[in-house]
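User: I'm curious whether this sequence folds into something compact or stays loose and floppy. Could you predict its structure so I can see for myself?
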Amino acid sequence: MEPFRLEITPTLAQHMSYQKFGPRPVRMLVMESNYWLDQACARAAATMGWEVRRVPVKMIGTMSRDMLKDLFQAILTHQPDFVLSINLSGMDVDGMFARFLDDVGVPHVTWFVDGPRTIMDGNTSSTTPTSVALTWECAYVSFLQECGFGHVHVMPLGVDESIFSHPPVDEHPHPPTFVGNSMIHEADKEMRLVMQVPALRAAVDDAFDSGRVTRANFAEGGSSILGAAAAGFDKAALYHAERVFFIEGTRRLRSELIVTLGPHGLHVRGDSMWEALTTQIGPSLGYEGELGPYYRNCPVNLNVTSVQMATTVNQRVFDCPAAGGFLLTDNQAALHDLFDVEKEVVTYDGFEDGRDKMNWFMAHPKSRREITERARARVLGEHTYQHRLQAIVALLKENFA
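Assistant: Here's the prediction. I'll summarize afterward.
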């Protein structure tokens, strides 16, 4: 059966036939769903003189009649050059919005900053010839191409310099710290769903026990991690298994970091459930107001990358040095494309190596400052969200102008 499409009248078609990416300032419509990246992109666009319209949408659940009205009115009155959503937020499961944007010739860009397999969950209704999928992790490119997006590109994260932009300081009143959620609550919630199917729980436990839950293996999918056992489970069970591999796998990495480096002075700032692992804990930090100053006033900021990122880097890699903080991070392949590694960012291979490097850099403040200054210059010079939006528009002009 043909999918439902909204009727495009001749008057509407004429109204929407305006030139995309013409001489006027770029017009961007953001489908705003409370992702931090919505705000970062809108702020970055405004600093470049773009005309930005934000329309509230649902990340999960049903949009109200008023929200739908506001969305369509914004498209018609703002006449955007493109529409941006994060992780497909605001796009309906039947693909009606995507087909409408395709029919009126407005490119829809969705930027995946989490694993797209569990976000899409097999639903490809929002893929059209004018849909553009950006992914912060190159390992998902082939998956998104197979889903049917008209255009797929890698787009790493960046920094919102309106929040994170300060030179390093010489005094550091805080201890070396990892800032992040313990993920204990989230992992328990996902594991309870898996435990409803005993055979699935056994297969998931075996995957963890045998060491198959790695970033590289996760890029191939939860079924790949389960191996031959995957054939015995339905789609819903495989979905929950992949969620557990991501969330529980990341929880274990973070816990191992704290257990290994905690005895050497590493503290943690996050949720209260860290108390199960360490007494060196402080409360969570607000992203927009408190995190930047904390990075800056910390001698060493530890980073560990999520299981869902096979090669790429997380937000901390850009935020921390831009805020004037020294970063010590696990060695991800994408770092070598984004930075001059060792001169601009220090990496560790394994948590024992991380412990040794944390101790060394704690004793060498001059080296920390020099590396931070070089990293900050690189981030602000090449990796802001202004840079990312300019790259997005260059891609869109090439295909849709």
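Summary: The mean pLDDT is 95. The CA atoms of residues 174 and 202 lie 43 Å apart.
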